Amino acid sequence: MSDASVWSAVLAATAAGLWAWRRWHYPSFWYLVGYPITAVSVRASWRRVALGCGLTKKRQRWWFTTVPGAIASTGIVRVKRRFQRVAVDTKPFMWLPLPTRYGWRVTLHTLEGQTPGDYADAAERLAHSWGVHAVRVSSPGRGGWCFRRPSATRWSRSTTSRRRRSC
Phi and psi for 72 in degrees, rounded to 5? Predict the structure, then answer.
């Protein structure tokens, strides 16, 4: 057999094994495969998602910048380097997403001036940005918010009777 056919057979067997694992024992598949991929993508996209959902605040930071100086008689631009105050978008701090049985939850710290209404209004935009069924916002304590991706379609008889944690 050629190398290409061996590799395609291995790839097909791996895909079939992953499909069967996900089909017949979803919780273990979620914890070992789905959650790590989701956690990395949520953390990597948080800055862009927070900026797009209007959850960032402008802060003044000292930044080392280059400013064009006067133009010399030869037409060459001189560049001055200096520190100056620059407006920078600051995102709320996000902890690592924690797995639940069929979803995940993440705790974050709010910035000054943010209210619960800001996060409740942005919940639908967050769900769309992350490609999840829904996002629920709850406040476990002062100054922090918890986003939960609830289970969309997976319910078993044992999970409906359990009491859900607030966050």
Answer: -75, 170
Q: Is the overall model pTM greater than 0.70, yes or no?
A: no
* Structure tokens that stand for 61 in this block: 């930071």
First to last CA, the chain: 54
Residue 61: C-alpha distances to residues 13, 112, 131, 148 (Å): 53, 16, 33, 32
- CA 42 to the chain's CA centroid: 2
**Alpha carbon distance 121, 123 (integer Å):** 6
Residue 167 tokens read as 């966050």
**Cα 115 to the center of its chain, rounded Å:** 20
**Residue 165 CB burial class (10 angstroms; 0-12, 13-18, ≥19):** exposed
Q: Are 51 and 91 in contact (CB under 8 A)?
A: yes
> CB–CB of 149/134 below 8 Å?
yes
What is the pLDDT at residue 113? Answer: 85
Cβ 159 vs Cβ 101: under 8 Å: yes
